[in-house]
Amino acid sequence: MKNDKITSKDVDFAKWYTDIVTAAKLVSYSEVKGCNIILPNGYAIWEEMQKGLDKSFKSTGHKNVYMPLLIPESLLNKESELVSGFAPEVAWVTHGGDKELEEKLCIRPTSETLFSDYYSKVVKSYRDLPLKYNQWCNVLRWEKETRPFLRGREFLWQEGHTVHENSIEAEKETRDILEIYKKFFTDYLAIPVITGRKTEKEKFAGAEYTLTVEALMYNGVCLQSATSHYFGQKFSKSYDIKFLNRENNYEYAYQTSWGTTTRMIGAVIMVHADDLGLVLPPNIAPTKVCIIPIGTDEKVSSVTTTISEKLAKENISYMVDDSDKTPGFKFAESEVNGIPVRIEIGKRDLENNTITMVRRDTLEHISVSLDEDIMALINKLLLDIQRNLYNKAKSRMESMTFEAKTIEDFKNIINTQPGFIKSSWCGKRECEDKIKEINGIKSRCILENEELTSSKCPVCGEEAKEEVVWGIQY
Amino acid sequence: MKNDKITSKDVDFAKWYTDIVTAAKLVSYSEVKGCNIILPNGYAIWEEMQKGLDKSFKSTGHKNVYMPLLIPESLLNKESELVSGFAPEVAWVTHGGDKELEEKLCIRPTSETLFSDYYSKVVKSYRDLPLKYNQWCNVLRWEKETRPFLRGREFLWQEGHTVHENSIEAEKETRDILEIYKKFFTDYLAIPVITGRKTEKEKFAGAEYTLTVEALMYNGVCLQSATSHYFGQKFSKSYDIKFLNRENNYEYAYQTSWGTTTRMIGAVIMVHADDLGLVLPPNIAPTKVCIIPIGTDEKVSSVTTTISEKLAKENISYMVDDSDKTPGFKFAESEVNGIPVRIEIGKRDLENNTITMVRRDTLEHISVSLDEDIMALINKLLLDIQRNLYNKAKSRMESMTFEAKTIEDFKNIINTQPGFIKSSWCGKRECEDKIKEINGIKSRCILENEELTSSKCPVCGEEAKEEVVWGIQY
């Protein structure tokens, strides 16, 4: 049944996206551009994401902290590359109460400066290392273009910041975190990703290198979904984080930082949702099952109660929609909200000793006898849905991954069907810039241990050294 | 064993407090006054507090959301009482990037304005009500005096904001939340509290009335620890939150708000900690048991492993300190960190088939045979400690609760031993002001269903109408 509040995604993808965000009550707009209200349906998904990632961070020895919101201008200025990267987009606090401040304070766009300043005070010896801290917080970036979840002036994220006694350990951390993100996208969000290293042009300001998780949206546009940066000694030199190493010499420490944001909610929408609304992978669905009793029959309520109690006992999150809306309205609402499994309990079905289960991913209706093991079926269904969503997204990503050996190839692909474009590259910035000129394609990442598509750079024709994925980005 | 980094609480309570905060690694200072870094040990306690309260809020039908950090000046100005209460202490953002903003934006000191603005857009009918939202976030208040956890320019808190179709329901919400807070203080934080209504002078700007949870610190100073406000229709009139009621008439909605902050960590310190460090009630201790193996004997490691595995299986949080520090250092550290139970596993004890358990609250050493049910003993010990901490704090509070019938009584109490001072009151603002003149004593709350201490107001001598608790406040 078509939802008339949602534009078809094949007609107008951008409109479809904002329709979903509104219809599923994920976000509402506030009076300040780019600073959105995250509504209960949206925030509950974020809480599931936090739970999943936080567990992985903690089980690998990371600890949560909270750094201040405000950064003095002088502290921010210590790391010149970071400043030039962020200065145009920070918000400045100039007054406290009715007094002008002696030094203006910026609202954190990210917290490298604060962590580094703190580390410079407490790291004295290799015995103090490693320090592996993370924080969940809000950040602000004064973006011109904004879109719910994808690009906001204020957004929520986690940012990990670690210090190590040598580069081997710090680089291992950078990679371990990339793996945590990749696993989270695959196993929780049911989103297949590619990972690799950003080019010098696209890396984080101030990093030695940036590793990235890149996902492909339904419309072929790429989304940078999580990043893990290796800083080497760049920040430690700017912020004077020195320690006595095992050889009893002073040495600058080795750092990393890594983060992911509420943007992940945008990715889940643009990979899985359809024209009826959200489609949530069971592993991050705040409500996994929606029970809709049809009518007020006594048998209907008793079966509803029995199944509810079993779900509660099995720790499967569920809701019962016993409001006075029509069944049709309730069905549509559970679909808009993307709840993985709907159970319809009606008098007529019960006469045949059955209930109906509906999968959100395929909309398949399954008639189930009450004599069956309902909980086993639900658990199997949730697993199936999770797996099916991943497989569907993976096939789509594969079918939208192209190879380009020439500039002409790039143009043809972009003009017919955007996606991930694999191409070999000589490594020169000029050639990267040139490819960007073509329809705004940016490099997504340099693939590792990957065969070259071609022996020559498609721009300059010189020897290709690296295999790179390119694409249009959000 | 005295900790030489901690001043004795009976010598200099203020110094003792900051020593504890530093020695237990709860907080570190940042470059911006009043904006502190919450370190892993501090943040882990906050996470336990969040978990406990969040569960209570959700189980009573509240949903989490996220409102923006920034409030346009014009929106803030809509509620005049709120503005006059907060204007002197908000921080203003005037620039985004290098451009001056058209309208300056304040960093939220609290979010009534944002919630009310949102509610005005979505509340149309009594069918939309109630809306019971909460958020966990950071807020900023440009305070002059700041102290870690007790008063900060930036702090973390939760703020609940609800809308109802009538005053009965909204007032019930105000009281239900007060009960949730009270229960949390009693059952989790092991802190006895008094609750009641704030006077007109002390209530929240813009509220019809404010209910409050007040706790008494070790030194007799009072701490306002959580508040629950009934707004009636005050905000709904300023922000135009109108709905069609059951009689099909337009009516302004009824609202509440309520909050508590990281200040609770300050309360836990000032009620339970001693000269050796923190003392954490087991119900909010991030780590409940610290195992210290003494020496490298094989039997020592095997018993350590056995007990660790049992704790993990029972879901009791624990740590094993197998670092190369001396046992004495480790004992002291577990004491500074306030871990409720310490288990010392040493070769000599094991020769007698025993281990030693040490309670953090009483420092009592208990020799335990390995033949006993160790897990049952630990569980019992954790319960005992929780109960003992509450009972100790309760006796102290009772012994520091005084009655004043005259102005002289007030003076004597304050000069000898501050605490909660119960006194009857005529209800007039002038008399309240007069009592404040005496050593800065403020009213804490008006007690409900309480017998009057005296039939006359101690200031004016007129008929007393209410029983009020007074005290020095943080």
Largest sheet, strands/sense/barrel of chain A: 7 strands, mixed
What is the beta-strand fraction of chain A?
A: 25-35%
The geometry of chain A reads as globular
Find the CATH topology of the largest domain in chain A: BirA Bifunctional Protein, domain 2
* Structural Rg of chain A: 25 Å
How many extended strands of chain A? 23
Individual helix count of chain A: 14
CATH architectural category of the largest domain in chain A: 2-Layer Sandwich
What assembly state would you assign to the polypeptide chains in this entry? homodimer
Residue share in helix of chain A: 25-40%
Record the strand order, biggest sheet of chain A. 3-7-8-14-11-10-9
Number of domains of chain A: 3
CATH class category of the largest domain in chain A: Alpha Beta
Describe the structure.
Two copies of one chain form a homodimer. Chain A has three domains: 260 residues, Bira Bifunctional Protein, Domain 2 (BirA Bifunctional Protein, domain 2, 2-Layer Sandwich); 101 residues, Anticodon-binding domain (Rossmann fold, 3-Layer(aba) Sandwich); 71 residues, Translation Initiation Factor IF3 (2-Layer Sandwich), CATH 3.30.110.30. Chain A has 14 helices and 23 strands. In chain A, the strands form six sheets. Chain A has a seven-stranded mixed β-sheet, sandwiched between helices. A five-stranded mixed β-sheet of chain A has the order 16-15-17-18-19, sandwiched between helices. A four-stranded mixed β-sheet of chain A has the order 20-21-23-22. In chain A, a hairpin with a 5-residue loop joins strand 12 and strand 13. Chain A is globular. Chain A starts with 12 loop residues before the first helix and ends with a strand. At the A-B interface, strand 2, helix 2, strand 3, strand 4 and strand 5 of A face strand 2, helix 2, strand 3, strand 4 and strand 5 of B.
